[in-house]
């Protein structure tokens, strides 16, 4: 049985939703001023954005309210945009998502939209409207105690290791495993961590690591051959190590573009990545985690033991932040395969290095355009009414 954790379930839901609903893709960059929610309050800007193309992001400047027509390569070098949109995904221009210094926080959590267990309260979602939730956008809010920038995420998450809070040691979690797609996108491996020794408080670095892999070669449908091992260590200064499972070779992360699995650390932070998304230029991806007792029974990385095709279940590495950790929507309420906003208010600091830079309060009020097409979120924002947090 595949394990589920809240962050991973959310990441998988984002992937599934990228193809959900009508509307398709017309490759337009657009954003129309919109007051269809009844928002005529002075100082509030509302905009419907065409983010229906799951293969690209579109970019918005909150100061001007204008969309900026640019390629991904241009956006990667530009501070002119603040938010990027693709289907349900919203990124900030900062951290792993861009060269800017944009950070975010939750200003109004909308806790009443969820029960004590964190499950959506369908009645609240279905009865809320843009008008009824406008007051939260306009309310005075305390300045956040902390802000969040976008960071790189992978479905490897933290399920491949165990952290001991008593001594700071990180060790292997051999009870979990993953399916990994290669950089070339045509071969696969079943992988788990079989040895890991990282005492984070001693300054020794990663003393040793070992990942065990079973490979399904390109053009085949089953795992075959011996179990491969990716082993090594990383010094206290930090760094990266990369493995190409097609050739059973440890490769240089800087000069090779065919690595499939990357392990690294800096300070006390450790990463495990596939060659995909912001992690690399390849077509890699991850599916999991699985309990190893279940995954060890798989004979293929493209079909499960019941012969269901799982080749589309792999997820590329991505960058995400406050809009992912505190999602703006619920999906499939009462069996309806649609998406409803929770009207959370997000605070967006447009430049964390400049105390005078504008800070905006922002809500997502819809995911569907005027004709009902999905991937056309409507957002509204205004200058945030923040009061400084004081210490008694």
Strand content: 35-45%
* 3D shape: globular
Low-confidence runs: 1-39
Rg estimate, integer Å = 22 Å
Structural class: mainly beta
Major sheet description = 7 strands, antiparallel
Helix content: under 10%
**Tally of alpha and pi helices:** 6
For the termini, the CA-CA separation is: 51 Å
Mean pLDDT: 88
Total count of domains: 2
The count of strands amounts to 27
Compact description:
The protein has helices at 6-17, 72-75, 122-127, 134-138, 292-295, 322-325, and strands at 31-33, 45-49, 58-61, 66-68, 83-86, 89-92, 103-108, 141-142, 151-153, 161-164, 169-172, 176-181, 188-199, 206-216, 228-234, 239-244, 249-251, 261-266, 269-274, 285-291, 318-320, 329-331, 339-341, 345-349, 359-368, 374-383, 386-387. With 392 residues, the chain is mainly beta. It has 2 domains: 6-150 and 321-387, no CATH class; 152-319, no CATH class.
What does this structure look like?
With 392 residues, this protein is mainly beta. The protein has two domains: 6-150 and 321-387, no CATH class; 152-319, no CATH class. It has six helices and 27 strands. The termini are far apart. Mean pLDDT is 88; it is low at 1-39.
Q: Helix and strand layout, with pairings?
A:
Elements: H1 6-17, E1 31-33, E2 45-49, E3 58-61, E4 66-68, H2 72-75, E5 83-86, E6 89-92, E7 103-108, H3 122-127, H4 134-138, E8 141-142, E9 151-153, E10 161-164, E11 169-172, E12 176-181, E13 188-199, E14 206-216, E15 228-234, E16 239-244, E17 249-251, E18 261-266, E19 269-274, E20 285-291, H5 292-295, E21 318-320, H6 322-325, E22 329-331, E23 339-341, E24 345-349, E25 359-368, E26 374-383, E27 386-387
Parallel strand pairs: 8-27
Antiparallel strand pairs: 1-2, 2-26, 3-4, 3-5, 5-6, 7-24, 9-21, 10-11, 11-13, 12-13, 12-20, 13-14, 14-15, 16-17, 16-18, 18-19, 22-23, 24-25, 25-26
């Amino acid at each position: 049985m595949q394990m589920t954790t809240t962050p991973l379930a959310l990441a998988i839901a984002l992937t599934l939703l990228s193809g959900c609903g009508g509307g398709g893709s017309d490759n337009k960059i657009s954003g129309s001023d919109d007051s269809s929610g009844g928002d005529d309050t002075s100082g509030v800007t509302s905009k419907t954005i065409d983010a229906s193309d799951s293969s690209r992001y579109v970019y918005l400047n909150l100061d001007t309210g204008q969309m900026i027509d640019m390629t991904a390569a241009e956006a990667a070098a530009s501070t002119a945009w603040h938010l990027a949109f693709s289907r349900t995904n919203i990124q900030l221009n900062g951290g792993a998502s861009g060269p800017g210094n944009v950070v975010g926080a939750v200003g109004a959590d909308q806790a009443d939209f969820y029960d004590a267990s964190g499950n959506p309260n369908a009645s609240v979602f279905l009865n809320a409207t843009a008008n009824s939730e406008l007051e939260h956008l306009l309310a005075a809010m305390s300045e956040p105690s902390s802000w969040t920038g976008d960071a790189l995420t992978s479905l490897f998450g933290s399920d491949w290791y165990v952290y001991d809070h008593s001594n700071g040691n990180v060790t292997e979690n051999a009870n979990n495993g993953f399916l990994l797609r290669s950089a070339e996108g045509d071969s696969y491996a079943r992988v788990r961590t079989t040895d890991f020794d990282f005492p984070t408080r001693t300054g020794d670095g990663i003393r040793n690591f070992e990942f065990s892999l079973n490979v399904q070669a390109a053009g085949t449908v089953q795992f075959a051959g011996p179990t491969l091992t990716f082993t090594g260590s990383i010094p206290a200064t930090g760094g990266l190590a990369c493995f190409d499972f097609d050739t059973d070779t440890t490769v240089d992360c800087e000069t090779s573009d065919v690595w499939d699995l990357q392990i690294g650390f800096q300070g006390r932070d450790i990463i495990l990545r596939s060659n995909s998304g912001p992690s690399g230029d390849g077509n890699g991806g991850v599916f999991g985690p699985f309990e190893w007792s279940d995954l060890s029974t798989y004979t293929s990385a493209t079909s499960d033991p019941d012969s269901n095709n799982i080749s589309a279940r792999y997820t590329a590495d991505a960058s995400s932040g406050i809009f992912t950790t505190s999602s703006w929507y619920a999906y499939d309420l009462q069996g309806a395969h649609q998406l409803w906003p929770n009207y959370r208010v997000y605070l967006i600091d447009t430049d964390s290095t400049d105390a005078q830079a504008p800070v905006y309060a922002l809500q997502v009020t819809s995911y569907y355009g005027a004709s009902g097409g999905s991937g056309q979120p409507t957002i509204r924002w205004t200058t945030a009414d923040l009061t400084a947090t004081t210490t008694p």
